[in-house]
Amino acid sequence: MNEFLSLMLVAVYRTDALLMESRQLIGLVAAVLAAMLAAQVGWHGTDRILTWRGRSED
After folding, report:
1. Alpha-carbon distance 49 to 58, whole Å?
2. What is the distance between the alpha carbons of residues 23 and 15, in angstroms, rounded to a whole number?
3. 2-57 pLDDT per residue, tens
4. Where are the transmembrane segments (predicted)?
5. DSSP-derived secondary structure letter, 12
6. Rounded distance, CA 27 to CA 19, Å?
7. How far apart are CA 24 and CA 28, in angstroms?
8. Distance CA 23, CA 2 (A)
9. Cα three-residue angle 8-10-14, rounded to 5 degrees
């Protein structure tokens, strides 16, 4: 029983350490994806605004 408890404690500790290590990587990936999404939305938004302004000048 004592070995089982020790094994479970080690497993929980390693999982916690892995999650703490990967938190920075997950944040970096999320930031890159958010930047790509913002660039895509900005590109399409600018294109639509220029198209709308081109129509109003005609």
Report:
1. 15
2. 12
3. 888 898 888 888 888 888 888 888 899 999 999 999 999 888 888 888 888 877 66
4. 25-43
5. H
6. 12
7. 6
8. 32
9. 120
31: phi then psi, degrees, rounded to nearest 5: -65, -40
Look at the block and give the residue holding tokens 């900005």.
42
Secondary-structure breakdown of the chain: helix, strand, coil percentages, each rounded to the nearest 5: 95, 0, 5
Residues 55 and 32: their CA atoms lie apart, in Å, by 35
Model's pTM, two decimal places?
0.54
Q: Which amino acid is at 9?
A: L
Separation between Cα atoms, residue 40 and residue 34, nearest integer Å: 10
**What's the token pair of residue 12?**
């929980």
- 24 DSSP 8-state letter: H
